[in-house]
């Protein structure tokens, strides 16, 4: 048996996270998480689906950020005395909750600066026409810097003594080190990462003004019924016509103002 899994121990040892089995689970998790982002692109409406280059710019920032946070969690979990799987799980759950909230406000603040200071490069999801690698690099650096600040805040919170009490029972139901490692590195992160990647991608991508909400559709449909006196099938499903109406009204309301 692998030296990092001792049958006499009920929890994973310090090197378990970076052992052969741990790396296998991490690779599998990264593959499934990346697949989730590909599926998300195809779930976008055809009229507003991002080109592959823009999609890559958006998702690559998140991919590099996830690698940064994951690496930091591996290092921090191994430095703290006790079960590294438990500490990794605590860091991961904090990143997925408080961390995601801080990232959201950080990105919204950068977009506020982009609007007030006219710093177009800070407007996440917009890379110019044609798309500029320089703008992507600026946004990527800004995003990674934001993640570093978030990680510092979370690390300071986890250094409180209360977490040492929580570690005594958080993984206590699991008595096999391999089972514990699988749950910590694959099962729980898979579902949480799928949700977190989906939400973060929505935060990082450009919010197109051509998206038609449900209330907008109902309002347009109501005017159509008033004008024609009847509701035919083409009026229900013709997204392209709805977009043209929405775009016309948007142009009349504001001239050249970009939404976030």
Automatic annotation (TrEMBL):
The keyword Transmembrane belongs to this UniProt entry's keyword annotation: yes
Regions crossing the membrane: 23-43, 64-82, 88-107, 142-163, 183-200
Keywords (A to Z) from UniProt: Membrane, Transmembrane, Transmembrane helix
Domain of life: Eukaryota
Pfam families: STIMATE
PANTHER family xref list: VACUOLAR MEMBRANE PROTEIN YPL162C (PTHR31735:SF1)
Protein known as: Store-operated calcium entry regulator STIMATE-like
Organism expressing this protein natively: Aphis craccivora (Cowpea aphid)
């Amino acid at each position: 048996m692998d030296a990092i899994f001792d049958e006499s121990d009920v929890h994973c040892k310090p090197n378990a996270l970076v052992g052969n089995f741990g790396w296998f689970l991490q690779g599998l998790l990264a593959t499934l998480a990346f697949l989730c982002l590909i599926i998300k692109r195809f779930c976008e409406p055809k009229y507003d689906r991002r080109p592959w280059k823009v999609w890559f710019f958006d998702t690559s920032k998140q991919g590099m950020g996830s690698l940064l946070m994951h690496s930091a969690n591996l290092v921090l979990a191994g430095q703290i005395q006790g079960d590294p799987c438990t500490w990794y799980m605590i860091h991961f759950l904090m990143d997925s909750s408080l961390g995601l909230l801080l990232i959201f406000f950080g990105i919204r603040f950068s977009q506020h600066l982009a609007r007030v200071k006219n710093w177009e490069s800070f407007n996440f999801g917009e890379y110019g026409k044609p798309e500029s690698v320089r703008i992507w690099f600026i946004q990527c650096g800004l995003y990674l810097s934001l993640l570093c600040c978030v990680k510092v805040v979370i690390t300071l919170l986890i250094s409180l003594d209360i977490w040492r009490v929580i570690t005594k029972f958080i993984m206590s139901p699991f008595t096999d080190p391999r089972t514990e490692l699988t749950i910590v590195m694959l099962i729980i992160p898979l579902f949480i990462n799928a949700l977190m990647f989906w939400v973060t991608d929505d935060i990082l991508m450009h919010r197109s003004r051509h998206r038609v909400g449900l209330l907008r559709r109902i309002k347009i449909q109501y005017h159509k019924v008033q004008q024609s006196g009847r509701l035919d099938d083409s009026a229900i499903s013709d997204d392209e016509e709805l977009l043209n109406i929405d775009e016309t009204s948007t142009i009349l309301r504001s001239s050249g103002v970009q939404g976030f």
